[in-house]
Prior knowledge:
The chain is mainly α. Helices cover 60% and strands 6% of the residues.
Amino acid sequence: MDCFSQIFKTESLAAPGFHERLVGIIVDCFQKKHPEISIENKSIEILTNLMHSFCLACGQAPFNFAEFIDQHLKNKREIKTFIAKLLYGLYFRDFDLVELSKKHPRQHIRFFLLQILSETANAGTLRKAIRSLSWDDLAVFIAVAHLNYREGSFLLLRQIQDLFRKNPMINLLLRNLSRKYISPSAFFNYLAKTVVKDLRDLEKISQNLQEGAAKQIQTIYQLFYPLILSLIASPVKTYQALENLKGLQKTQDPQKLLEAQNLSKKFKEAFDFFLEKKNSEESFAVFFQQFGLYGHQPPIKVPGFHDSESLLQKIQALHKLFQNPLSFASMPQEDLQAIYAFVLRICYRLYTYHCASDRYKEGLDLLTFAMPTFGKDLSRQPWLFSIASGLNTLSEYFKKANLEISLDQYPIYVFDQSPKRLFVKNQRFIRKLEERFKCCIVHVSQTEALLLAKKLHLEKLIATQEKGAFGYGGARNCVYFLTPMLKAAHKLGKRTVSEAIDLNEDELQTLFRRSVLGEVAQGQDAVLHMGDDDIEVPEACIFADLLFAQKFNQEYFDRMTYIIGRATNIINPYLDLQSFLKSPAGLYHFTQWKDTANLAGIVGLLSKPKFCLNLPFGSEEKDFRLKGYSDPFRPALIHLSGNRHPSKQIPADPFSGLAESLEKINVYVFHIGMVQSLLDSRDNKGRCVFPWNPRRNESPYPFTSLGQALKFASQEKYKKEMQKRFWKNVDGLLSPEQKTTFLIGMDLEYLLNQDVDASIREFRQTNPLFEKVKSLDEIGLCYKRFQKDAKLFQDFLEKVKNEICQRVENPSTWFEGCVELNLSAIIEQIRKEMEVQNRVRFKQWPFTHGLYLLLRSVGAGEFSDLLNLQT
């Protein structure tokens, strides 16, 4: 079955259409009749031939994939899952063949396969695979795992760390790489000219890399103080340079000169604390060993800064900028402010690390780390491990600073809705983490969270789905409303959730008003780090979070952070069947790996307690906006959510198993489109329904606490204002002239107007290779279900509007008069009538059921009524 040698010999991997032709060959190989061969064995044969041809074409050593399977995998389920992951990855470009083919003496596909293996195999299989590596292969793999970071990197590097826990040299190497103190690309290039025969060879390489890092620090040290002085002098120098451009016509502008002098004075005052205490080069070295030399955010629009990797390159770029004042005279004010903030934050962090470690302690007293999770094996997820490990590092730092603490007093909270068997497994993992890192993790079950919520009359803000499930909004509210309470109870000696629940209602309300609502005294409410189970948090981010909490505790704020990895906040809906058939890989564009950092939403958000709507949909972070801050000079978080491809079957073609994925992804996307269209929380279209959120170009309302915000949002006049705005958006969506100006309106048009059977038939006719692919029939049925749901959605919305119009005095402005009606009763009446007429239950039709929940929560104002209960 040597089907691949020709394409790899004659075509460039980067050639237009290469990927599509390669996929076509794979599908053709599967369709050749070999009834005596199982699909597992056929898959192994296909992949073995593909990888053999790939290695020959790229100049890599010969490789036998079948032997790789025999060596590392015995369990049939693991083999099937591993093969499926590879095939889907090829179909949907989860890995870059061009990148894997790059000429390098140590580049080889087997190292990449070990990464993929770690994403599907159990810990025992991984340990066995690691033990089988030579010292040379182990060194290369450590470099590759960091250089091409993905989910498998995190899992395998953890296993290497565990296996070599008693080896200080390997631990130091792993620590320096994870902290970005040494560059993985420099490590990889070093291995190109060195064969690692034993541990001593690896130690020599590690020492050489550390010496290279030390030289960078030496140069940074030499440049940093002159950079600060240049920054301080820049306003006056810029003024003078602009005056010199005028030539003989120049006339001094006293006002502008005074403004420049005042700004320079302001800069000097800001940096005085750092300039007065001259730090040594050694203190710089100790600091950057912890905070790294690569990957600091945010990117700033300065030539040589935005795309550069190392901190040294960034500082050199800023030096070059300040040499010519005219080069930044025309820079936007926000870019100049970003440069100032970046340099100042380095000074502030460096000073605090060496001279004011008590600030970290104050921040730790204020900040609590918490995470909601559902159905995830936490032993394979990065957030909890990285937070526990980071706090352990912090504890060691405090010891060196003569500040003894016990992490037992600073619990991490995990709200786990997993089924009982998985919950127990997660519990065991949590106990191992506590023992290893000497920390405290409070594992809160769904039942415990709801019991506490009921005592505080919060259950409807948290249980947004049937059987008490939280959904997206409820899970976030769980963290916002319950975590501060549990932390406050913990300080009173109530260490378990059950002990907190047993407090009487008066005691709970007192804790609630102080730690959540912030009504007792400003700064008494909690600061929260909102975790996501699939986020890896670098240690430096934990130090940064503590310092930020300490500095801004007296304000009511939130602070977003930068993120790399899987960009799941950017989702491509595939409600248009023809577009999906043309490019099924597009369904997973949102899980492609992105090395460019972008601002995250609620992931890693640092904030005071706030609220989300009592709805189970995504995009929940936009429901309530606080005064936002940035926090420069910190590494990006890493999103390791996986590619989210199907895993239940080996895909003989790109459409295999996608009907189930389409069902999940398109429902999720449809709901997000619905709330973005009808709520417009960020006012992107000038249609924001929430009176507590600012309009475009307006500053957020100056709330000082959650209690104040809840009192505002629950007032009857603001409830009615929210309802009027919402129903006006509904009126626009139902208007033929305005419908397609709404994202959800375009989605409905796609769904209601497409001929599913004709689209499938036409695709088969123009793509004979897929003529007999049965998975297309499953996809067709899936789209017909979407279509029926969309029709039910539109009918439901129109019937609710028509019923309201019949009851108001002026139907032309029904969206204003409707607020005086019992809208909950009307919505409920229409739902019951339609379920009887159509012989359906809305809960079985997710688009329509989502609309029903939204109409009740926002349209009928029930969400505002829930907020009133809190005050």
